[in-house]
Amino acid sequence: MKNKITAAAKAVTLLLATASTAAQANLVITEYIEGSSSNKAVEISNLGTSTVDLDAAQYAITLYSNGSTEAGNSSILTGTLAAGSSIVYHNGSADDAFKVGIESTVTYFNGDDALLLTKDGAIIDRFGKLGEDPGSEWTDANDANFSTKDKTLRRKASITAGDTNASADFPGTDNQWLVFDKDTSDGLGCPGEGACTAEPGVLIITEYVEGGGNNKAVELSNVGGSAIDLDAAVYTLSLYGNGSTDAGNTETLTGMLAAGESIVFHNSSADDAFKVGTASTVTYFNGDDALVLYKDDVVIDRLGKLGEDPGSEWTDPNDANFSTKDKTLRRKNSVTAGDTDATAAFPGDNNQWVTFDIDTADGLGCAGESACGETPVEPDPDTPCSGCEELTPVADPTTFDGNVYYTNVLTGNFDDAEAMKNAISVAITAGHQQLTYKQVWTALSYSDEDPANSSNVIELYTGLSVSKQNNGGNTGDWNREHVWAKSHGFPSESQLGYTDAHHLRPTNVKVNSTRSNYDFNECSDTGTEVAEAPGNYVDTAARCFEPRDQVKGDVARMILYMDTRYQGNDSNMPDLVAVDRITTADEISNNDPLHGKLCTLYAWHQQDPVDAADTQRNDAVYKYQGNRNPYIDYPEWVQQVYGDQCGDPAKPSLDVDVIIDAPEQVNEAETLVIDASATVAEDGSELSFSWEQTAGPELTFDGSKAILSVTAPEVTADTAIAFTLTVSDGVLDKTQVVNVSVINVPLAFDVSFSGNTELNEGESTVITAEIANEPAGLTYTWQQVSGAEANYSAQGLALSVTAPDVSVDQDIVFELVISDGVEQTSTMVSINVKNTVESGWTKPDGAGSLGLGLFMLLPLAAWRRRQNK
Fold it and tell me: Which Pfam families match (predicted)?
């Protein structure tokens, strides 16, 4: 854990250097180890008779190096500390024998560095003399063996109160310390002058992960002083679903578990980051399911309340951030025994859990509140932050030319705000180089650097200047806050938006957790002020977070950048949308790419304009990521892109009711009249009218008057045409669109025929068609459509026909097809052709007799067939 106390806290420290109370005296530095290489540790013990609630005040141990009065690395003490119990902080690179308790950079000391133990800034104990550099060590003229270098020192058993005078000589005339040989470690973990008696192993649940999808895991750790033989008894972990008292999926633990070691069970379908330890169905839990740890069927620890279904989660009325759903929970460092009452309320009055964001996986595999991580290293002044790598610039902000970078926007002519936003997106996508999540640490160390102290960064929500080297996941560290919460559209580290430094900011770890994944909105009236970051407010019921006034514009411009940058055109990113509402829990659970609240953010942009800090981070991100935030370069574009949505259009419209009388449809070739003459200005000012056709076949008309009169076009099918009317008073204008459907009228004519339509075989006739009100430009085509084939010819509307031979009287039919070049219509004329009776043939008597008729007809028919050959 790392934390740098503020200048105000240091001032309080010095002013209260001699303050001491009975309550403060309970907590004392009881052991100090300055051994070989990184074998360094410090022990703090409760020498009182009652438990100390470390969360009731801010207890901290802080390192002051080489005579400095400027605070260095610090660790915040949390949880509760029972009477006679100890907290140990050790160096992460120490030998195993020294790795008792909690890994911390507060142990980056040598023999000439001082340590102060404080409560709310007031000194309650010290080691060394503040403000003095003794060279390499403090010594005691009365004890040649005493040294703060290459020794283990333990507080004498007679000492029960801290030394509150940090500026007094050390160790003083009344030396309170016993000296042990270099690299002695057997006293760590217990107060007193002697070595600790080995404590038994203690198995408890130390971490619980209920994340997105199947990202679920549970960690069990031995927090005792010796190894546990899990085969010497029956140790089981059982899942109880939805309030059931019948055990569901169960794991039996086997083998040896060394002190300080952990067992992790994970869901086999979880993301790779959660696949620590062993896959197990005991992780098939949701936020309303209980886990119980047994030894020989006796409860030794639990998470949740056995037999209770809380709905979807267990919560804590005293901690709005605590939840067993969509969170990672880690057991506080101070908890050294399991919770054996599985039916008690959970988490109870003394919540033993520290809450982290959904899908936090970096603590799996080790006990404690902190991330497991890599072994910490001493701060390197040549690196931008702790464990960070140097980055190679990809762009030069000193030569940046906005006219070139944004040329397609500055020279564009956009029909609407969306078109402009798309053009901006194209500009800021070009050159974007994806950073790794580790590289983001480095980018932020430059983008958010304190202008007054190049060794520090400014935290977004607290506004505090903190050491760049204090980056990490421990309480008091600064970490990487996704301003557009990653659960709102891009939960995977591989996605481009996840590592986009334009919306990532340094924030205090605890404040980051408090902000959670809530939308941004005004909630100071209904929410509570964030204790660690005054001026910021959170309302968990309303699911909103309100940042301090000084950075509201910063937050707004980051959210609007993300909404503009990501339009769904990147292979692994959705179209991010800033919405003017609070997103729902279901939307967040589904990782829907939505974030609110747009118009609140719009107002914040105006209230907190772009300043030097915005420009600094825009240039720095550009230098290492290659693209820019357009709303920092051109703040006025916010109104042009988002103003209409938030009731603040870039170009206000004329305040007039446009009244238009127009038909919904008109037949082709008819006159269309659209009348806007009833539109008048409320103040009586003169208005001008301008009509523009915006859809349909191009027409010619006078568009400068209130009344538009135009001939509807001829169309082959029903066709929509549209006109846009612009009404202006000379300063402002207002537009309105009129849509009219042009109805296709089928081609039709009144046609009559003249000429002989009764013919005998072989006779000829001329049939002439007449068209009433015949228009110019028609063409005509004749064709026979039925009857015996006739000889015919046609010219225009005249048809010449010679009647064919027919065996019986019949009609022959001709079709006249009339076309205007686009459409056509047709009509029919029929000519009756009569069969001619050959000479010499008469109807026989008795023709009514069927028998005789057939007798006479058959020879005749045969003869006629011969004649026709």
Answer: Endonuclease_1, LTD
Mean pLDDT of all residues in 484-489: 94
pLDDT at 20 over 80: no
Residue-wise over 43-61: b if at least 16 C-beta within 10 A, else e?
bbbbbbeeebebbebbbbb
Pairing, β 449-450 against β 719-728: unpaired
The whole-number pLDDT of residue 838 equals 63
Query: Phi and psi at residue 855, in whole multiples of 5°?
Result: -65, -40
What are phi and psi for residue 277, nearest 5 degrees? 80, -130
Judged against a pLDDT cut of 90, whether residue 65 lies above it is answered with yes
Pair type for strands 262-266 and 256-257: unpaired
Residue among 142, 136, 133, 140 nearest 170 (CA): 140
DSSP 255: S
Question: What local confidence, expressed as pLDDT, does residue 21 receive?
Answer: 35
- Across the chain, mean pLDDT equals 89
Report CA-CA distances (Å) from 596 to 581, 601, 607, 723.
Answer: 5, 8, 18, 37
- The per-residue b/e assignment along 76-114, b for 16 or more CB within 10 angstroms, e otherwise, is bbbbbbeeebbbbbbbbbbeeebbbbbbbbbbbbebbbb
Burial of 308 (0-12, 13-18, 19+ CB in 10 A): middle
**Is there a contact between 580 and 597 (Cβ–Cβ < 8 Å)?**
yes
Please give the backbone phi and psi of residue 735, each rounded to the nearest 5 degrees, phi first: -115, 155
Residue 388: predicted pLDDT: 85
Using one digit for the tens of pLDDT, what is the confidence trace for 82-136? 888 899 999 988 898 899 889 899 999 999 999 999 998 899 999 999 999 999 9
Q: Which residue has the higher pLDDT, 473 or 611?
A: 611
Phi-psi region of 494 (alpha: psi -120 to 50; beta: other; left: phi over 0): alpha
Place of tokens 């057997």: 186
Rg (CA), the chain: 46
Q: 3-state SS of 384-436? A: CCCCCCCCCCCCCHHHCCHHHHCHHHHCCCCCCHHHHHHHHHHHHHCCCCCCC
Per-residue tokens: 471? 């980056």
More confident residue, 355 or 374: 355
CA distance 372 to 365: 7
| 188 in Cβ contact with 198 (< 8 Å) | no
- Cβ atoms < 10 Å from Cβ of 707: 13
- Cα–Cα dist 258/16, whole Å: 43
Task: Name 595's Cβ contacts closer than 8 Å, sequence gap at least 6.
Answer: 484, 485, 488, 489, 519, 520, 559, 562, 563, 576, 577, 578, 579, 583
* 30-51 pLDDT tens trace: 999 999 999 999 999 999 888 8
Instruction: Output the six-digit token pair for 325.
Output: 């759903």
Q: Residue 152 and residue 146: Cα distance in Å, rounded?
A: 10
Range with the poorest average pLDDT among 373-387, 443-457, 565-579 = 373-387
**Residue 657 half-sphere exposure toward CB, CA atoms < 13 A:** 4
Whether 375 has a pLDDT exceeding 80, the answer reads: no
Going from the C-alpha of 69 to that of each of 130, 137, 385, 634, the distances in angstroms are 6, 17, 22, 44
Which residues, other chains included, contact 594 with Cβ-Cβ below 8 Å and sequence gap of 6+? 488, 489, 576, 577, 578, 579, 583, 587
Three-state DSSP at 1 gives coil
Q: Are strands 764-771 and 544-546 parallel, antiparallel or unpaired?
A: unpaired
Average pLDDT over residues 143-163: 95
* Whether the predicted pLDDT of 381 surpasses 70: no
Contact 136, 50 (CB under 8 A): no
Predicted TM-score (pTM) of the model is 0.43
Residue 814: beta bridge partners? 784, 829
pLDDT of residue 864: 32
Q: Considering the chain, what percentage of its residues have pLDDT values greater than 70?
A: 92
Residue 331 predicted with pLDDT over 70: yes
| Residues pairing with 42 in the sheet | 32, 89
Amino acid code (one letter) for 334: S
